[in-house]
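Notes from the 1:1 (GR / supervisor)

We went over the backlog. Supervisor wanted to see one worked example end to end before approving the batch request, so GR pasted a single chain during the call. The sequence is below; no edits were made to it. Supervisor asked that the structure be written out right there so they could see what the output format looks like.
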Amino acid sequence: ILKTAGYSDTKFDNALDVGAGEGRISETVLAHISNVTYATETSSKYADILRRKGIPCLERDLCEKNLELDEEWGNFDLVALFNVLDRTSDPGVLLEKSLEKLKPDGTVLISTPLPFRPVYYEGVGLIPKDSNGGLAEEARKKFPTTPTGLDSELWEESARWFMFEVMPRFGLEVQAFSKIPYIVSGDLTKEFTFHENLIFASKINVNA
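Structure output shown during the call:
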């Protein structure tokens, strides 16, 4: 993706992995393209794992009001959001907060399952997936779920909508994209769940 977008093999100075989980993306992807990686994570368990792996981690939800990241971290050449926009109560706020930590000429890497219909956990309970994706009305105004009719059989149309209708609302211009498989653990009825993910590199459009 990055080579298609015109990047050389030179590493980024630093990267921020938003919602890093156990750090698999930090270890397998970001470690190869950045000199140092930082992370945010809401789970205490995963935050501890990240720190044990030597990855500086802020154990907070970026959607929190008035939350400020550690100023010692500075801003980042690369901000990565892998499979987190569909797992938050307010993807718009999460993306906006993440972009605040991006350097003026920085790059954003985003990967998310399509169609975009988020669900998220509140405490130990899963907010049900409904026609509104489980999102509050205010959250849906800026970051809507995939429109009715753009279903899994129309992945390409859903990707076009996500990249060229939703992302410009946040000032982002897509440079390169691809379609990749995403397999996650299932539930009581199935061992695994298969998704088709959109992954793309983008920059802030200074002319927007």
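Supervisor's comment: The chain has a mean pLDDT of 81.
Batch request approved.
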